[in-house]
Amino acid sequence: MTMATKKKASAPPAAPAPPPRFGGLDGLRAIAVATVILFHFVPGALPGGYIGVDIFFVISGFLITSLLLREHAATGRIGLRSFWNRRARRLLPALALVVLVATAGALAIGGDVLVGIGRQVLGAATFSYNWLGIAANASYFDQATPELLRNLWSLAVEEQFYLVWPFVTLALLVFLKRRRWMLAVVLVIAGASIAAMLLLSFAGADPTRLYYGTDTHAFGLAIGAAVAIVGTRAVRVLPELGTLALAGVLALSWLLPEDSEWVFRGGLVLVAVLTALAIAGATAPGSRLGRALDVRPLRWVGERSYGLYLWHWPLLVLVTAAWPALPGLAIAGIALAATVTAAAVSYRWLEQPVRRLGFRAVAAAWARSWRGGRVRVATAAVSGLAIAALVAAAGVAVVTAPASGRVEDRIQAGLESIQSQPPMVLEQASDAPAPLPGGDQIIAIGDSVMLAAADEVIAQFPGIHMDAAVSRRMTAAPAILQSLKDAGQMRPIVLLGLGTNGPVAESTLDEIMAVVGPDVSIVLVNAQAPRGWIPGVNEVLARYAQRYRNVELANWYDAIQPRIDVLATDLIHAGGPIGGGIYAGAIRDAMQRLAELPPLLNSNDYGLTPRPA
User: In terms of Cα–Cα distance, which of 349, 352, 354 is closest to 364?
Assistant: First the structure.
Protein backbone atom coordinates (compact mmCIF):
# COMPACT_ATOMS: atom_id res chain seq x y z
CA MET A 1 0.00 0.00 0.00
CA THR A 2 1.46 3.33 -1.00
CA MET A 3 1.79 6.30 1.36
CA ALA A 4 -0.87 8.17 -0.57
CA THR A 5 -3.23 5.23 -0.22
CA LYS A 6 -2.56 5.05 3.53
CA LYS A 7 -3.32 8.73 3.95
CA LYS A 8 -6.52 8.34 2.00
CA ALA A 9 -7.62 5.36 4.04
CA SER A 10 -6.97 7.07 7.37
CA ALA A 11 -8.62 10.37 6.48
CA PRO A 12 -11.83 11.16 8.33
CA PRO A 13 -15.04 10.87 6.35
CA ALA A 14 -15.89 14.00 4.44
CA ALA A 15 -18.66 16.17 5.81
CA PRO A 16 -21.85 16.09 3.78
CA ALA A 17 -22.00 18.66 1.05
CA PRO A 18 -23.96 21.74 2.05
CA PRO A 19 -27.39 22.03 0.47
CA PRO A 20 -27.68 24.27 -2.58
CA ARG A 21 -28.25 27.89 -1.68
CA PHE A 22 -31.24 29.82 -2.98
CA GLY A 23 -30.58 33.48 -3.65
CA GLY A 24 -32.63 35.96 -1.69
CA LEU A 25 -33.97 33.57 0.97
CA ASP A 26 -31.68 34.88 3.70
CA GLY A 27 -32.87 38.40 2.98
CA LEU A 28 -36.49 37.28 3.19
CA ARG A 29 -35.74 35.55 6.49
CA ALA A 30 -34.17 38.77 7.76
CA ILE A 31 -37.30 40.72 6.86
CA ALA A 32 -39.50 38.08 8.51
CA VAL A 33 -37.62 38.04 11.81
CA ALA A 34 -37.28 41.83 11.88
CA THR A 35 -41.05 42.30 11.54
CA VAL A 36 -41.76 39.82 14.34
CA ILE A 37 -39.20 41.37 16.69
CA LEU A 38 -40.44 44.90 16.02
CA PHE A 39 -44.02 43.76 16.54
CA HIS A 40 -43.18 42.30 19.96
CA PHE A 41 -40.60 44.82 21.18
CA VAL A 42 -42.36 48.03 20.17
CA PRO A 43 -46.10 47.25 20.09
CA GLY A 44 -47.99 49.60 17.84
CA ALA A 45 -44.94 50.43 15.71
CA LEU A 46 -45.77 47.66 13.22
CA PRO A 47 -49.34 46.48 13.91
CA GLY A 48 -49.13 43.51 11.54
CA GLY A 49 -45.55 42.46 12.23
CA TYR A 50 -46.70 39.05 13.45
CA ILE A 51 -47.06 38.03 9.77
CA GLY A 52 -43.31 37.43 9.78
CA VAL A 53 -44.15 33.95 11.10
CA ASP A 54 -46.21 33.29 7.96
CA ILE A 55 -43.28 34.42 5.82
CA PHE A 56 -41.16 31.80 7.61
CA PHE A 57 -43.81 29.13 6.95
CA VAL A 58 -43.81 29.74 3.20
CA ILE A 59 -40.00 29.81 3.08
CA SER A 60 -39.82 26.51 4.98
CA GLY A 61 -42.35 24.84 2.71
CA PHE A 62 -40.45 25.99 -0.37
CA LEU A 63 -36.99 25.11 0.90
CA ILE A 64 -37.78 21.67 2.31
CA THR A 65 -39.76 20.59 -0.74
CA SER A 66 -37.03 21.88 -3.09
CA LEU A 67 -34.37 19.90 -1.24
CA LEU A 68 -36.48 16.72 -1.25
CA LEU A 69 -37.21 17.06 -4.98
CA ARG A 70 -33.53 17.69 -5.78
CA GLU A 71 -32.44 14.68 -3.76
CA HIS A 72 -34.93 12.45 -5.52
CA ALA A 73 -33.92 13.77 -8.94
CA ALA A 74 -30.23 13.14 -8.17
CA THR A 75 -30.46 9.76 -6.43
CA GLY A 76 -33.88 8.35 -7.26
CA ARG A 77 -34.75 8.17 -3.57
CA ILE A 78 -35.34 10.28 -0.44
CA GLY A 79 -33.21 9.39 2.55
CA LEU A 80 -35.64 9.91 5.42
CA ARG A 81 -33.08 9.18 8.12
CA SER A 82 -30.54 11.62 6.70
CA PHE A 83 -33.27 14.25 6.19
CA TRP A 84 -34.39 14.10 9.81
CA ASN A 85 -30.79 14.01 10.99
CA ARG A 86 -30.11 17.24 9.10
CA ARG A 87 -33.24 18.83 10.58
CA ALA A 88 -32.22 17.75 14.08
CA ARG A 89 -28.74 19.22 13.63
CA ARG A 90 -30.26 22.46 12.41
CA LEU A 91 -32.99 22.89 14.99
CA LEU A 92 -32.30 21.09 18.25
CA PRO A 93 -29.05 22.65 19.57
CA ALA A 94 -30.32 26.23 19.63
CA LEU A 95 -33.77 25.14 20.82
CA ALA A 96 -32.35 23.15 23.75
CA LEU A 97 -30.10 26.04 24.79
CA VAL A 98 -32.93 28.59 24.66
CA VAL A 99 -35.27 26.38 26.71
CA LEU A 100 -32.61 25.70 29.36
CA VAL A 101 -31.44 29.31 29.68
CA ALA A 102 -34.97 30.77 29.65
CA THR A 103 -36.24 28.29 32.23
CA ALA A 104 -33.25 28.86 34.50
CA GLY A 105 -33.78 32.61 34.15
CA ALA A 106 -37.43 32.23 35.09
CA LEU A 107 -36.40 30.28 38.20
CA ALA A 108 -34.02 33.08 39.19
CA ILE A 109 -36.69 35.75 38.77
CA GLY A 110 -39.58 33.70 40.15
CA GLY A 111 -43.21 34.69 40.33
CA ASP A 112 -45.77 34.52 37.55
CA VAL A 113 -43.17 33.98 34.84
CA LEU A 114 -42.90 30.35 36.07
CA VAL A 115 -46.59 29.54 35.69
CA GLY A 116 -47.17 26.78 33.14
CA ILE A 117 -43.46 26.24 32.54
CA GLY A 118 -43.80 22.45 32.75
CA ARG A 119 -46.33 22.36 29.93
CA GLN A 120 -44.22 24.74 27.88
CA VAL A 121 -41.05 22.65 28.26
CA LEU A 122 -43.01 19.49 27.42
CA GLY A 123 -44.38 21.20 24.31
CA ALA A 124 -40.87 22.22 23.24
CA ALA A 125 -39.50 18.71 23.81
CA THR A 126 -42.30 16.91 21.96
CA PHE A 127 -42.90 19.38 19.11
CA SER A 128 -46.46 19.86 20.33
CA TYR A 129 -46.37 23.31 21.89
CA ASN A 130 -49.22 24.60 19.76
CA TRP A 131 -51.64 21.79 20.60
CA LEU A 132 -50.79 21.79 24.31
CA GLY A 133 -51.40 25.54 24.34
CA ILE A 134 -54.79 25.06 22.70
CA ALA A 135 -55.70 22.35 25.21
CA ALA A 136 -54.72 24.64 28.11
CA ASN A 137 -56.75 27.58 26.69
CA ALA A 138 -53.55 29.62 26.45
CA SER A 139 -53.85 32.87 24.53
CA TYR A 140 -51.30 33.96 21.96
CA PHE A 141 -52.81 37.44 22.05
CA ASP A 142 -52.51 37.96 25.83
CA GLN A 143 -50.26 41.01 26.12
CA ALA A 144 -50.56 41.33 29.89
CA THR A 145 -49.41 37.92 31.19
CA PRO A 146 -47.37 36.34 28.39
CA GLU A 147 -45.98 32.79 28.48
CA LEU A 148 -42.21 32.48 28.59
CA LEU A 149 -41.85 30.15 25.56
CA ARG A 150 -44.91 31.27 23.62
CA ASN A 151 -43.03 31.76 20.35
CA LEU A 152 -42.31 28.02 20.14
CA TRP A 153 -45.83 27.41 18.85
CA SER A 154 -44.69 28.16 15.29
CA LEU A 155 -41.64 25.93 15.62
CA ALA A 156 -43.97 23.10 16.65
CA VAL A 157 -46.03 23.59 13.48
CA GLU A 158 -42.88 23.47 11.35
CA GLU A 159 -41.50 20.42 13.16
CA GLN A 160 -44.77 18.56 12.61
CA PHE A 161 -44.46 19.47 8.94
CA TYR A 162 -40.89 18.11 8.83
CA LEU A 163 -42.06 14.81 10.28
CA VAL A 164 -44.89 14.29 7.81
CA TRP A 165 -43.92 16.07 4.59
CA PRO A 166 -41.14 13.74 3.38
CA PHE A 167 -43.68 10.87 3.33
CA VAL A 168 -46.15 13.04 1.40
CA THR A 169 -43.50 14.13 -1.10
CA LEU A 170 -42.26 10.58 -1.59
CA ALA A 171 -45.80 9.32 -2.16
CA LEU A 172 -46.44 12.06 -4.72
CA LEU A 173 -43.22 11.24 -6.56
CA VAL A 174 -43.93 7.50 -6.60
CA PHE A 175 -47.62 7.47 -7.46
CA LEU A 176 -48.15 10.64 -9.49
CA LYS A 177 -44.77 11.41 -11.05
CA ARG A 178 -46.03 14.33 -13.15
CA ARG A 179 -45.48 17.72 -11.57
CA ARG A 180 -48.92 19.01 -12.55
CA TRP A 181 -50.66 16.28 -10.55
CA MET A 182 -48.30 16.80 -7.62
CA LEU A 183 -49.10 20.51 -7.73
CA ALA A 184 -52.84 19.80 -7.77
CA VAL A 185 -52.61 17.63 -4.64
CA VAL A 186 -50.50 20.19 -2.77
CA LEU A 187 -52.94 22.97 -3.66
CA VAL A 188 -55.82 20.80 -2.39
CA ILE A 189 -53.93 20.44 0.91
CA ALA A 190 -53.46 24.20 1.07
CA GLY A 191 -57.13 24.76 0.22
CA ALA A 192 -58.26 22.37 2.97
CA SER A 193 -56.21 24.29 5.54
CA ILE A 194 -57.58 27.63 4.29
CA ALA A 195 -61.13 26.26 4.44
CA ALA A 196 -60.58 25.03 8.01
CA MET A 197 -59.43 28.50 9.11
CA LEU A 198 -62.34 30.22 7.38
CA LEU A 199 -65.00 27.85 8.66
CA LEU A 200 -63.79 27.97 12.25
CA SER A 201 -63.42 31.74 12.07
CA PHE A 202 -67.01 32.27 10.93
CA ALA A 203 -68.13 29.75 13.57
CA GLY A 204 -66.65 32.02 16.25
CA ALA A 205 -63.67 29.87 17.23
CA ASP A 206 -61.09 31.30 19.62
CA PRO A 207 -58.43 33.27 17.68
CA THR A 208 -55.63 31.30 19.35
CA ARG A 209 -57.17 28.03 18.11
CA LEU A 210 -57.12 29.43 14.58
CA TYR A 211 -53.59 30.75 14.92
CA TYR A 212 -51.97 27.78 16.70
CA GLY A 213 -53.72 24.94 14.89
CA THR A 214 -51.56 22.98 12.47
CA ASP A 215 -54.70 22.18 10.48
CA THR A 216 -55.73 25.82 10.19
CA HIS A 217 -52.28 27.33 9.70
CA ALA A 218 -50.49 24.84 7.43
CA PHE A 219 -51.50 26.50 4.18
CA GLY A 220 -48.37 28.68 4.13
CA LEU A 221 -46.15 25.60 4.22
CA ALA A 222 -48.21 23.98 1.44
CA ILE A 223 -48.14 27.12 -0.71
CA GLY A 224 -44.36 27.26 -0.33
CA ALA A 225 -44.19 23.62 -1.40
CA ALA A 226 -46.28 24.48 -4.47
CA VAL A 227 -43.71 27.09 -5.52
CA ALA A 228 -40.98 24.45 -5.25
CA ILE A 229 -42.97 22.07 -7.46
CA VAL A 230 -43.71 24.69 -10.11
CA GLY A 231 -40.13 25.97 -10.25
CA THR A 232 -39.05 29.44 -11.32
CA ARG A 233 -37.11 29.06 -14.54
CA ALA A 234 -39.88 29.43 -17.07
CA VAL A 235 -41.37 32.80 -16.13
CA ARG A 236 -39.28 35.89 -16.94
CA VAL A 237 -41.53 38.39 -15.17
CA LEU A 238 -41.08 36.70 -11.80
CA PRO A 239 -38.43 39.11 -10.44
CA GLU A 240 -40.60 42.16 -11.16
CA LEU A 241 -43.70 40.40 -9.84
CA GLY A 242 -41.74 39.28 -6.79
CA THR A 243 -40.71 42.85 -6.02
CA LEU A 244 -44.32 44.01 -6.10
CA ALA A 245 -45.35 41.04 -3.95
CA LEU A 246 -42.67 41.82 -1.37
CA ALA A 247 -43.90 45.41 -1.25
CA GLY A 248 -47.39 44.03 -0.65
CA VAL A 249 -46.16 41.88 2.24
CA LEU A 250 -44.48 44.89 3.84
CA ALA A 251 -47.68 46.90 3.40
CA LEU A 252 -49.71 44.17 5.12
CA SER A 253 -47.28 44.21 8.05
CA TRP A 254 -48.67 47.68 8.68
CA LEU A 255 -52.25 47.36 7.43
CA LEU A 256 -53.27 44.02 9.03
CA PRO A 257 -53.39 44.46 12.82
CA GLU A 258 -53.80 41.31 14.90
CA ASP A 259 -57.33 42.17 16.02
CA SER A 260 -58.69 42.65 12.51
CA GLU A 261 -61.41 40.18 11.54
CA TRP A 262 -59.66 39.85 8.16
CA VAL A 263 -56.62 38.17 9.71
CA PHE A 264 -58.33 34.77 9.64
CA ARG A 265 -60.68 35.54 6.77
CA GLY A 266 -58.17 35.91 3.98
CA GLY A 267 -55.47 38.16 5.42
CA LEU A 268 -52.96 35.45 6.30
CA VAL A 269 -53.72 33.64 3.05
CA LEU A 270 -52.89 36.81 1.12
CA VAL A 271 -49.62 37.09 3.07
CA ALA A 272 -48.74 33.51 2.10
CA VAL A 273 -49.55 34.03 -1.59
CA LEU A 274 -47.56 37.27 -1.80
CA THR A 275 -44.63 35.65 0.02
CA ALA A 276 -44.73 32.76 -2.45
CA LEU A 277 -44.51 35.23 -5.35
CA ALA A 278 -41.64 37.05 -3.60
CA ILE A 279 -39.76 33.76 -3.18
CA ALA A 280 -40.32 32.85 -6.82
CA GLY A 281 -39.08 36.25 -7.90
CA ALA A 282 -36.04 36.23 -5.61
CA THR A 283 -34.89 32.71 -6.56
CA ALA A 284 -35.42 33.07 -10.30
CA PRO A 285 -32.14 32.89 -12.28
CA GLY A 286 -30.45 36.28 -12.55
CA SER A 287 -33.04 37.98 -10.35
CA ARG A 288 -32.20 41.53 -9.33
CA LEU A 289 -34.54 41.08 -6.38
CA GLY A 290 -32.51 38.10 -5.23
CA ARG A 291 -29.27 40.11 -5.49
CA ALA A 292 -30.83 43.00 -3.56
CA LEU A 293 -31.93 40.65 -0.79
CA ASP A 294 -28.47 39.10 -0.66
CA VAL A 295 -26.71 42.23 0.57
CA ARG A 296 -24.40 41.43 3.46
CA PRO A 297 -26.39 42.92 6.39
CA LEU A 298 -29.55 41.09 5.37
CA ARG A 299 -27.63 37.86 4.84
CA TRP A 300 -26.04 38.15 8.28
CA VAL A 301 -29.42 38.60 9.94
CA GLY A 302 -31.05 35.94 7.77
CA GLU A 303 -28.42 33.34 8.57
CA ARG A 304 -29.06 33.91 12.28
CA SER A 305 -32.81 34.44 11.96
CA TYR A 306 -33.64 31.12 13.60
CA GLY A 307 -31.69 32.01 16.72
CA LEU A 308 -32.98 35.58 16.73
CA TYR A 309 -36.54 34.28 16.60
CA LEU A 310 -35.96 31.72 19.36
CA TRP A 311 -34.24 34.11 21.75
CA HIS A 312 -36.19 37.34 21.30
CA TRP A 313 -39.44 36.44 23.05
CA PRO A 314 -38.14 34.64 26.19
CA LEU A 315 -35.59 37.40 26.74
CA LEU A 316 -38.25 40.09 26.37
CA VAL A 317 -40.45 38.31 28.94
CA LEU A 318 -37.54 37.85 31.36
CA VAL A 319 -36.31 41.44 31.07
CA THR A 320 -39.86 42.72 31.59
CA ALA A 321 -40.33 40.48 34.64
CA ALA A 322 -36.95 41.44 36.12
CA TRP A 323 -37.30 45.21 35.64
CA PRO A 324 -41.00 45.95 35.16
CA ALA A 325 -40.64 49.60 36.14
CA LEU A 326 -38.32 50.40 33.23
CA PRO A 327 -39.80 52.32 30.29
CA GLY A 328 -40.94 50.16 27.42
CA LEU A 329 -38.21 51.37 25.06
CA ALA A 330 -35.53 50.64 27.66
CA ILE A 331 -36.86 47.10 28.09
CA ALA A 332 -36.91 46.68 24.30
CA GLY A 333 -33.32 47.96 23.99
CA ILE A 334 -31.97 45.61 26.66
CA ALA A 335 -33.88 42.64 25.23
CA LEU A 336 -32.73 43.42 21.67
CA ALA A 337 -29.06 43.66 22.68
CA ALA A 338 -29.32 40.39 24.60
CA THR A 339 -31.13 38.73 21.67
CA VAL A 340 -28.54 39.67 19.06
CA THR A 341 -25.67 38.66 21.36
CA ALA A 342 -27.20 35.31 22.31
CA ALA A 343 -28.12 34.47 18.70
CA ALA A 344 -24.64 35.36 17.40
CA VAL A 345 -22.87 33.34 20.11
CA SER A 346 -25.18 30.37 19.66
CA TYR A 347 -24.75 30.45 15.87
CA ARG A 348 -20.95 30.61 16.04
CA TRP A 349 -20.17 28.23 18.88
CA LEU A 350 -23.09 25.78 18.92
CA GLU A 351 -25.29 25.71 15.85
CA GLN A 352 -22.61 25.78 13.16
CA PRO A 353 -20.31 23.15 14.73
CA VAL A 354 -23.20 20.72 15.24
CA ARG A 355 -24.58 21.41 11.78
CA ARG A 356 -21.21 20.75 10.11
CA LEU A 357 -19.91 17.87 12.22
CA GLY A 358 -22.92 16.29 13.89
CA PHE A 359 -23.78 15.61 17.51
CA ARG A 360 -21.34 12.74 18.01
CA ALA A 361 -18.36 14.56 16.55
CA VAL A 362 -19.00 17.65 18.68
CA ALA A 363 -19.40 15.51 21.80
CA ALA A 364 -16.19 13.64 20.94
CA ALA A 365 -14.31 16.91 20.43
CA TRP A 366 -15.52 18.11 23.85
CA ALA A 367 -14.36 14.85 25.43
CA ARG A 368 -10.94 15.13 23.78
CA SER A 369 -10.52 18.64 25.16
CA TRP A 370 -10.09 17.13 28.63
CA ARG A 371 -6.77 15.69 27.40
CA GLY A 372 -5.52 19.01 26.04
CA GLY A 373 -3.81 21.97 27.65
CA ARG A 374 -5.00 23.91 30.66
CA VAL A 375 -7.07 26.35 28.64
CA ARG A 376 -8.92 23.58 26.84
CA VAL A 377 -9.50 21.64 30.05
CA ALA A 378 -10.76 24.79 31.79
CA THR A 379 -13.07 25.57 28.87
CA ALA A 380 -14.45 22.03 28.88
CA ALA A 381 -14.97 22.13 32.63
CA VAL A 382 -16.77 25.47 32.58
CA SER A 383 -19.01 24.45 29.71
CA GLY A 384 -19.82 21.13 31.37
CA LEU A 385 -20.64 22.78 34.68
CA ALA A 386 -22.75 25.43 32.94
CA ILE A 387 -24.79 22.80 31.10
CA ALA A 388 -25.26 20.77 34.29
CA ALA A 389 -26.34 23.88 36.20
CA LEU A 390 -28.82 24.85 33.49
CA VAL A 391 -30.32 21.36 33.37
CA ALA A 392 -30.62 21.27 37.16
CA ALA A 393 -32.19 24.75 37.28
CA ALA A 394 -34.67 23.83 34.55
CA GLY A 395 -35.65 20.70 36.48
CA VAL A 396 -36.16 22.66 39.69
CA ALA A 397 -38.20 25.27 37.82
CA VAL A 398 -40.52 22.65 36.35
CA VAL A 399 -40.98 20.84 39.67
CA THR A 400 -41.50 23.94 41.82
CA ALA A 401 -43.50 26.11 39.38
CA PRO A 402 -46.75 27.37 40.91
CA ALA A 403 -49.96 26.01 39.46
CA SER A 404 -51.25 29.54 39.02
CA GLY A 405 -49.85 33.02 39.43
CA ARG A 406 -50.95 35.90 41.57
CA VAL A 407 -52.44 37.72 38.62
CA GLU A 408 -54.12 34.58 37.35
CA ASP A 409 -55.72 33.98 40.76
CA ARG A 410 -57.07 37.53 40.86
CA ILE A 411 -58.44 37.19 37.33
CA GLN A 412 -60.08 33.87 38.17
CA ALA A 413 -61.66 35.38 41.28
CA GLY A 414 -62.99 38.21 39.13
CA LEU A 415 -64.47 35.77 36.64
CA GLU A 416 -66.20 33.88 39.43
CA SER A 417 -67.60 37.11 40.82
CA ILE A 418 -68.96 38.07 37.41
CA GLN A 419 -70.47 34.63 36.84
CA SER A 420 -72.19 34.73 40.23
CA GLN A 421 -74.05 37.93 39.36
CA PRO A 422 -77.82 37.60 38.89
CA PRO A 423 -79.15 37.81 35.31
CA MET A 424 -79.15 41.32 33.95
CA VAL A 425 -82.44 43.16 34.29
CA LEU A 426 -82.83 46.66 32.92
CA GLU A 427 -84.34 48.96 35.51
CA GLN A 428 -85.74 52.37 34.79
CA ALA A 429 -83.80 55.26 36.21
CA SER A 430 -85.51 57.19 38.97
CA ASP A 431 -86.78 60.70 38.29
CA ALA A 432 -84.58 61.82 41.18
CA PRO A 433 -81.30 60.04 40.49
CA ALA A 434 -78.97 59.22 43.35
CA PRO A 435 -75.88 61.40 43.72
CA LEU A 436 -73.82 58.41 42.56
CA PRO A 437 -75.19 56.17 39.78
CA GLY A 438 -76.14 52.72 41.01
CA GLY A 439 -74.68 49.55 39.57
CA ASP A 440 -78.01 48.73 37.94
CA GLN A 441 -77.40 51.69 35.64
CA ILE A 442 -73.93 50.56 34.46
CA ILE A 443 -72.62 48.14 31.83
CA ALA A 444 -68.89 47.43 32.19
CA ILE A 445 -66.80 46.01 29.33
CA GLY A 446 -63.20 45.25 30.26
CA ASP A 447 -60.02 43.23 30.02
CA SER A 448 -57.96 41.27 32.54
CA VAL A 449 -57.21 44.43 34.55
CA MET A 450 -60.91 44.87 35.21
CA LEU A 451 -61.16 41.16 36.03
CA ALA A 452 -58.39 41.47 38.62
CA ALA A 453 -60.37 44.26 40.33
CA ALA A 454 -63.83 42.81 39.72
CA ASP A 455 -64.59 42.06 43.38
CA GLU A 456 -63.95 45.64 44.39
CA VAL A 457 -65.84 47.13 41.43
CA ILE A 458 -68.88 44.93 42.07
CA ALA A 459 -68.79 45.82 45.77
CA GLN A 460 -68.68 49.51 44.88
CA PHE A 461 -71.50 49.21 42.31
CA PRO A 462 -73.83 46.32 43.24
CA GLY A 463 -75.91 45.21 40.29
CA ILE A 464 -73.35 46.29 37.68
CA HIS A 465 -73.34 44.16 34.54
CA MET A 466 -69.71 43.25 33.89
CA ASP A 467 -68.36 41.55 30.76
CA ALA A 468 -64.55 41.22 30.94
CA ALA A 469 -62.09 38.85 29.30
CA VAL A 470 -58.33 38.32 29.13
CA SER A 471 -56.52 40.00 26.20
CA ARG A 472 -59.58 41.96 25.09
CA ARG A 473 -58.96 45.22 23.22
CA MET A 474 -61.07 48.30 22.56
CA THR A 475 -61.87 47.07 19.06
CA ALA A 476 -64.05 44.33 20.58
CA ALA A 477 -66.36 46.83 22.31
CA PRO A 478 -68.60 47.95 19.39
CA ALA A 479 -69.78 44.41 18.62
CA ILE A 480 -70.40 43.60 22.30
CA LEU A 481 -72.39 46.80 22.84
CA GLN A 482 -74.33 46.30 19.62
CA SER A 483 -75.43 42.85 20.78
CA LEU A 484 -76.56 44.28 24.13
CA LYS A 485 -78.44 47.06 22.36
CA ASP A 486 -80.12 44.61 20.00
CA ALA A 487 -81.24 42.56 23.01
CA GLY A 488 -82.75 45.65 24.66
CA GLN A 489 -80.23 45.50 27.49
CA MET A 490 -78.43 48.81 27.06
CA ARG A 491 -78.04 50.83 30.26
CA PRO A 492 -77.59 54.58 30.78
CA ILE A 493 -73.84 54.32 31.51
CA VAL A 494 -71.17 52.27 29.70
CA LEU A 495 -67.84 51.69 31.48
CA LEU A 496 -64.93 50.71 29.21
CA GLY A 497 -61.64 49.39 30.60
CA LEU A 498 -59.92 48.26 27.41
CA GLY A 499 -56.66 50.15 27.02
CA THR A 500 -54.13 47.63 28.31
CA ASN A 501 -53.62 45.28 25.37
CA GLY A 502 -52.84 47.61 22.50
CA PRO A 503 -53.28 51.04 20.95
CA VAL A 504 -56.72 52.69 20.87
CA ALA A 505 -57.91 54.61 17.82
CA GLU A 506 -60.34 57.51 18.02
CA SER A 507 -62.26 55.94 15.16
CA THR A 508 -63.03 52.97 17.42
CA LEU A 509 -64.35 55.33 20.10
CA ASP A 510 -66.46 57.08 17.46
CA GLU A 511 -67.90 53.70 16.49
CA ILE A 512 -68.77 53.01 20.13
CA MET A 513 -70.48 56.39 20.42
CA ALA A 514 -72.52 55.65 17.30
CA VAL A 515 -73.62 52.28 18.70
CA VAL A 516 -74.73 53.46 22.17
CA GLY A 517 -76.31 56.71 21.00
CA PRO A 518 -76.37 60.21 22.49
CA ASP A 519 -78.45 59.30 25.56
CA VAL A 520 -75.82 56.95 27.01
CA SER A 521 -72.85 58.26 29.00
CA ILE A 522 -69.43 56.61 28.65
CA VAL A 523 -66.68 56.25 31.24
CA LEU A 524 -63.23 55.42 29.80
CA VAL A 525 -60.71 53.83 32.17
CA ASN A 526 -57.15 54.66 31.17
CA ALA A 527 -54.29 52.18 31.50
CA GLN A 528 -51.26 51.42 33.65
CA ALA A 529 -48.72 49.02 32.19
CA PRO A 530 -45.00 49.03 31.31
CA ARG A 531 -45.85 48.88 27.62
CA GLY A 532 -44.86 51.29 24.88
CA TRP A 533 -48.39 52.03 23.70
CA ILE A 534 -49.77 53.08 27.11
CA PRO A 535 -48.91 56.83 26.90
CA GLY A 536 -50.60 57.03 23.52
CA VAL A 537 -53.67 55.17 24.77
CA ASN A 538 -54.03 57.45 27.78
CA GLU A 539 -53.62 60.56 25.64
CA VAL A 540 -56.34 59.42 23.22
CA LEU A 541 -58.75 58.57 26.05
CA ALA A 542 -58.14 61.87 27.89
CA ARG A 543 -58.58 63.91 24.72
CA TYR A 544 -61.79 62.09 23.87
CA ALA A 545 -63.22 62.63 27.35
CA GLN A 546 -62.44 66.33 27.12
CA ARG A 547 -64.19 66.63 23.79
CA TYR A 548 -67.59 65.16 24.70
CA ARG A 549 -69.88 66.18 27.53
CA ASN A 550 -71.22 62.66 28.10
CA VAL A 551 -67.76 61.00 28.19
CA GLU A 552 -65.79 60.90 31.44
CA LEU A 553 -62.29 59.63 32.22
CA ALA A 554 -61.59 57.25 35.11
CA ASN A 555 -57.96 58.10 35.80
CA TRP A 556 -56.67 54.71 37.00
CA TYR A 557 -53.15 55.57 35.81
CA ASP A 558 -52.69 58.61 38.06
CA ALA A 559 -54.60 57.01 40.93
CA ILE A 560 -52.26 54.02 41.15
CA GLN A 561 -48.93 55.83 40.75
CA PRO A 562 -48.48 56.64 44.47
CA ARG A 563 -49.23 52.99 45.34
CA ILE A 564 -47.52 51.13 42.51
CA ASP A 565 -46.35 48.67 45.19
CA VAL A 566 -49.85 47.19 45.50
CA LEU A 567 -49.83 46.01 41.90
CA ALA A 568 -48.82 42.50 40.91
CA THR A 569 -45.23 41.96 39.81
CA ASP A 570 -46.21 42.70 36.19
CA LEU A 571 -47.10 46.27 37.25
CA ILE A 572 -50.37 45.92 35.34
CA HIS A 573 -52.97 44.13 37.45
CA ALA A 574 -54.18 44.82 40.97
CA GLY A 575 -52.24 42.49 43.25
CA GLY A 576 -54.88 42.43 45.97
CA PRO A 577 -57.85 44.25 47.51
CA ILE A 578 -55.93 47.51 47.97
CA GLY A 579 -55.07 47.78 44.28
CA GLY A 580 -58.56 46.66 43.32
CA GLY A 581 -59.99 49.31 45.63
CA ILE A 582 -57.94 52.02 43.96
CA TYR A 583 -59.20 50.85 40.56
CA ALA A 584 -62.80 50.92 41.80
CA GLY A 585 -62.17 54.32 43.40
CA ALA A 586 -61.01 55.83 40.11
CA ILE A 587 -64.24 54.60 38.53
CA ARG A 588 -66.31 55.93 41.46
CA ASP A 589 -64.76 59.38 41.07
CA ALA A 590 -65.60 59.42 37.36
CA MET A 591 -69.17 58.33 38.08
CA GLN A 592 -69.48 61.11 40.67
CA ARG A 593 -68.45 63.68 38.09
CA LEU A 594 -71.07 62.33 35.72
CA ALA A 595 -73.74 62.55 38.41
CA GLU A 596 -72.89 66.19 39.12
CA LEU A 597 -73.31 67.31 35.50
CA PRO A 598 -76.23 69.77 35.25
CA PRO A 599 -78.99 68.79 32.83
CA LEU A 600 -78.76 70.06 29.29
CA LEU A 601 -80.81 73.20 28.59
CA ASN A 602 -82.97 73.64 25.54
CA SER A 603 -82.90 76.73 23.35
CA ASN A 604 -85.68 78.48 25.33
CA ASP A 605 -83.71 78.16 28.54
CA TYR A 606 -80.87 80.05 26.91
CA GLY A 607 -83.27 82.81 25.84
CA LEU A 608 -82.44 82.28 22.19
CA THR A 609 -86.04 81.93 20.97
CA PRO A 610 -89.14 83.86 21.98
CA ARG A 611 -91.36 82.16 24.52
CA PRO A 612 -94.94 81.53 23.40
CA ALA A 613 -97.45 84.15 24.59
Answer: 354
328: alpha, beta or left? (left if phi > 0; alpha if psi -120 to 50)? alpha
Cβ count within 10 A of residue 590: 23
Burial level of 179, CB count in 10 A (0-12/13-18/19+)?
middle
Beta strand 521-525 with 465-468 is unpaired
Report pTM: 0.82
Alpha-carbon torsion 233, 235, 240, 241, what sign? Answer: negative
Cα separation, 278 vs 466, whole angstroms: 47
Q: pLDDT (tens digit, 9 = 90+) per residue, 26-67?
A: 999 999 999 999 999 987 789 899 999 999 999 999 999 999
> Alpha-carbon distance 509 to 501, whole Å?
16
Residue 231: what pLDDT? 82
Asked whether the beta carbons of 55 and 256 are under 8 A apart, the reply is no
Residues 6+ apart with CB under 8 A from 235: 280, 284
Helix (H) or strand (E) holding 524: strand 521-525
Please determine, for residue 445, whether its predicted confidence score (pLDDT) is greater than 70. yes
Q: Is the pLDDT of residue 407 over 90?
A: no
pLDDT in tens, 217-241: 999 999 999 999 998 655 666 778 9
Sheet holding 442-446, edge to edge: 465-468, 442-446, 493-497, 521-525, 551-554
- Tell me the Cα Rg of the chain: 29
d(CA 224, CA 54): 10
445 forms beta bridges with 467, 496
Task: Flag whether pLDDT at 189 surpasses 90.
Answer: yes
Tell me, what's the pLDDT at 542? 95
Q: Is 462 exposed, middle or buried (0-12, 13-18, 19+ CB in 10 A)?
A: exposed
Nearest to 149 by CA among 164, 133, 137: 133
